[in-house]
């Protein structure tokens, strides 16, 4: 069975179909050594090269069809790459060998809920095409009162910038006060279609959650930011809705099946907070930090100024007291008399302590007599001749 060349290259993951058509038109692709043309078909066993490098491929019917459901959180964008480096819905998907995930439909950065991913490009295209009229169900929280007249307008149809649009069904599901929840269904996937329908009636959407896409319903056990792979029964129901034949080998086996069963029994915790929510928390934390720093700086500056003023006052008082004492005592005469008194008292006290008391005098006499006795003993020992020791042969000495 043959297949279009640009479709095969896009499924391998080298780019979109439109980009692959541009690559083929530039003469960069060859099949069996011949430069390929746009629209050319390829069969199993053909040699496919792009820029001289061989590309391994499989015909679509031979590939096992896989479908993922993902609970998109607020703040993630539906794109593979973002020039602003924001998180994308592809960041947390499991890798797939020699293939790529194709997103079915989109949700804006502020919306949450069900997203489908598949490795079957034809299935994705049929699920998104308006001619197949695949239903998308949303839970919407609206700020404002929805009167019966406004409800009839939105279900009968309103005119938007890109054409008429309407809700296939509209029902209230709860809420209190000014914010109320409604459940709506549309059969198209135009950009921000649900929000624009409400805005055309002067209503503002504060939250938007996709709960169903075709036959796939967002399961209760799936938490925000987590994914789950569908089994054979759910995939076959999707393909039947868009009139595609089921494939052999479709479904979960081994560890993948056990993982899904374990998630149903014990759901994984939600990944708390999207990009926007985390950004708000960071901004609030920075503002609080700056406020605390400013408060601490003001308190420290006030305390520093207070301490500095107190030190200046103390120094001023001390200088004034010194001046007063100098003037009172007569200036230089007072200092000179004070120095003389200090020197005389010191010398007299020192002499009295050294020689004045009888105890000190007796101690000095004893020290003098001991010194004389030691000197006389040393002199007598020096006058006596030194006795020489006789020569004795050591016991261990041997004569030769």
TrEMBL record:
InterPro entries according to UniProt: PsdUridine_s_RsuA/RluB/E/F_cat, PsdUridine_synth_cat_dom_sf, PsdUridine_synth_RsuA/RluA, PsdUridine_synth_RsuA/RluB/E/F, PsdUridine_synth_RsuA/RluB_CS, RsuA_PseudoU_synthase, S4_RNA-bd, S4_RNA-bd_sf
Gene Ontology cellular component terms for the protein in this record: cytosol
Residue segments, region Disordered: 249-400
Residue ranges, compositional bias (Polar residues): 342-359
GO aspect biological process, one term: enzyme-directed rRNA pseudouridine synthesis
PROSITE patterns (alphabetical): PSI_RSU, S4
Record-listed E.C. numbers: 5.4.99.-
Catalysed reaction equations from the record: uridine(2605) in 23S rRNA = pseudouridine(2605) in 23S rRNA
Residue ranges occupied by any RNA-binding S4 domain in the UniProt entry: 3-64
Keyword tags: Isomerase, RNA-binding, rRNA processing
UniProt cross-references to Pfam families, sorted A to Z: PseudoU_synth_2, S4
Highest taxon above the source species: Bacteria
Segments of skewed composition (Basic and acidic residues): 309-324, 362-389
GO MF annotation terms: 23S rRNA pseudouridine(2605) synthase activity; RNA binding
Database matches in NCBIfam families: PRK10700.1, pseudouridine synthase
Function per UniProt: Responsible for synthesis of pseudouridine from uracil-2605 in 23S ribosomal RNA.
Family the UniProt entry places it in: Belongs to the pseudouridine synthase RsuA family.
Name this protein carries in UniProt: Pseudouridine synthase
Annotated organism of origin: Acinetobacter bereziniae LMG 1003 = CIP 70.12
Lineage: Bacteria, Pseudomonadati, Pseudomonadota, Gammaproteobacteria, Moraxellales
